[in-house]
Amino acid sequence: MKILFIGGTGNISAASVRRLIGQGHQVVLLNRGTRPPESYGIEGATTIQADIHDETATANSLNGQHYDVVVNCIAFNASDVERDVRLFAGRCAQYIFISSASAYQKPLQQFPITESTPLENPYWDYSRQKIAAEAACMQAYHDSGFPVTIVRPSHTYETVIPVAIGGWNNFAIIERMRAGRPVLVHGDGTSLWTITHSEDFAIGFTGLFGHPQAIGEAFHITSDEVQSWNQIYDAVGRAAGVEQVNKVHVPSEYIARMVPGMRGGLLGDKAASAVFDNSKIKEFVPAYNASIPFQEGICRTIEWIEAASGRKQVFEDANVMMDAVIETYLSAYNRLQPLHFK
C-alpha cells in the first residue's frame, strides 16, 4: 500500500511507521521536518516537508497523488478534518483520524468502556474538540462517502514518561524519584488506569489499514493490563532504580484549583478510572495483542531517553509546581483539627 502520514514521527505514530515499512509498504511522511525520522528508528520513508495548516502549499506539495491510506496524527478539531476532506476527497481509499479515548463520557456511567460509550467531556476542551472532529468525520462519511476510520488511543507511550503529573517529555519526575523528593500523585492513587506501549498499539492500528470493513467505524486500541496509579508510579520508580517512591497524594480537585491548566487533563481524564473492552479491535484485527507489560516498556523508555544527549530534558517549572502544590496541601492538611461528636 501507499500510505501518507501527516506527522508520523511522534510518540504514537513512529512505531506504526516502522512496522509498515518493515512489512514492505510505501510510507510517505508529511510534516514540517522538525523531528528527524532517524531519531525514532525510521528508515526508508519518503518525506514531504510542508505545514498541513497551509492548505494551498500542502496541496501543491501533494501534487494530486492518490494514497491507499492517509493518517492524520495532528488533527485536533473540526476545521482540521474539514480541510483534510478538501485535500483528500477522491485522493485516498481510507482516511484515518486519530481521536482520543479522553472523549469518552466523564464521569463514566458503566464499565468497561466500549466504542458505544457516549462521547461527552465537560471538563476538557481538548476532548470536546476531538468529539467535534469525529462528528465532522462522520458527517463527511454520510454526506459524500468520505472513507473515514476513527481511532481513539488512550495514554500510549514509547518515548515519553506516561505519569499524570511532571512527566511526559519532562525527565523531572525521574530525577525527583532518584533524589527521594516527593512526587505528586493525584487522588489516593487507587483509581484504575490503562497504559499502552506504542509498539503494541501499532499492531492493532496498522491492521486497520486497507481494511474495507473499518470504513465508517471507530475503534479504541489499548492494553488489557490494568493498574492503579500507585502501581504505575512504583513501576516508573523501579525502572529508574528507585525501590521506594516518595508519593504524596493530593485530591485531584485541589490540584485543579491550584493549577487551572491541569484541570482538563485531570478531571477530564486521568482522575477517572479507564478500563477498556478491546473486543472490537480484536474482532477486526485478530492478530492484535498487547504483549509488552508496563514494567518492561517503561524500562525501555528510560533507557532510550538516557541513551542519547538531548533526549533528557528537565523543565524546572514542573518541579516548582509540584513543590508548591505539595507544600500548600500538606500545610493545610497538618492544620486540620478532628471534629468530636457525641
Topology:
Blueprint: E1 2-6, H1 13-22, E2 26-31, E3 46-49, H2 55-62, E4 69-72, H3 78-88, E5 95-98, H4 125-144, E6 148-153, E7 156-157, H5 172-179, E8 183-186, E9 192-194, E10 196-197, H6 198-207, E11 218-221, E12 226-228, H7 229-239, E13 247-250, H8 252-258, H9 263-270, H10 279-284, H11 294-306, H12 316-334
Parallel strand pairs: 1-2, 1-4, 2-3, 4-5, 5-6, 6-11, 7-10, 8-13
Antiparallel strand pairs: 9-12
Helix pairs in contact: 1-6, 3-4, 7-11, 8-9
List keywords for this structure.
single chain, 342 residues, alpha/beta, two-stranded parallel ribbon, 12 helices, 38% helix
Structural class: alpha/beta
Helicity, as a percent range: 25-40%
Secondary-structure element string: EHEEHEHEHEEHEEEHEEHEHHHHH
Main pleated-sheet profile:
7 strands, parallel
Count up the helices: 12
The unreliable regions are none
Rounded radius of gyration (Å): 21 Å
Mean pLDDT: 95
Q: Strand arrangement, largest sheet?
A: 3-2-1-4-5-6-11
How much of the sequence is in beta strands? 5-15%
Distance between the termini: 75 Å
Number of DSSP E strands: 13
Shape: globular
